[in-house]
Fold this protein.
Amino acid sequence: MRIGELATATQTQVETIRYYEREGLLPQAARTGGNYRIYEAVHAERLGFIRHCRSLDMTLDEIRVLLRFKDAPQTECGEVDALLDEHIGHVVTRIRELRLLEVQLRTLRARCPGVRDAGHCGILNGLAAGPRPSGAAKVR
């Protein structure tokens, strides 16, 4: 299949497919005499794997490691376990950061309980005052 067909079949933008090729995540496709890329089922399967990893917010470097193991199925997967444990730790940290962000945004929103002119908007004035020290808002 051509790149447009692969893009449609995997719901991936053409530029994303080309990017994954440049990054070495997808093997280079064979080319026709007219220099069109020709993809096979293996490309679609690998692209599906990459997209699933990306949907789990994995980095390209993490995906490279996983692909290395996927390409060597006889290899022990202890490093895969460690990679996922580390990724879970990043997710937990990010959730904590997002909860703090929510508290900060709700605090800012509470500064403007009603509609008024922009010159007296508590939200705009709060933003103009700058960020509060990181310890000022506590996560619940």
User: Anything to note?
Assistant: The chain has a mean pLDDT of 91. The beta strands are 30-31, 37-38.
